[in-house]
Amino acid sequence: MISLEPAERPRDAKPTASQALRRTVRRSELHKIVPLADTTIYELEQRGEFPRRFNLTPRCVVWDLAEVEAWVAERRRASEEAAFAKAPHPDVRQRRTRPVRR
Predict the structure, then answer these.
(1) What H or E segment, with its residue span, contains residue 30?
(2) What's 54's DSSP letter?
């Protein structure tokens, strides 16, 4: 029996069930993968730097797991290449008051 590689598959062939199904994750599961605050994730989404959420139902918001994993891999690659600079340290000389110790 001849197996068809993806490049050899006819164009009009439909994807199989396993290819068509994409896993989604809810917010609690997303936080296990990406330990960022909700507001940070929202701001990254608004800037187009994080995969967009979508509604399965009016009360159920999910993210595409493949897109989130690709985003994490891209961030890891960028970090290893030092493509983005680290945030600068605050200049303590510009403080108006000293921090309160408790």
Answers:
(1) helix 27-33
(2) E
Query: 26: which residues sit within 8 A by CB, 6+ positions away?
Result: 60, 61, 62
Alpha-carbon separation of residue 6 from 10, 18, 21, 67 (angstroms): 9, 14, 17, 21
Check: pTM over 0.85? Answer yes or no: no
> Where is 25: in which H helix or E strand?
strand 24-25
pLDDT per position as a tens digit, 29-68: 999 999 999 999 999 999 999 999 999 999 999 999 999 9
Sheet bearing 60-64, strands edge to edge: 24-25, 60-64, 54-57
CA atoms within 13 A on the CB side of 38: 5
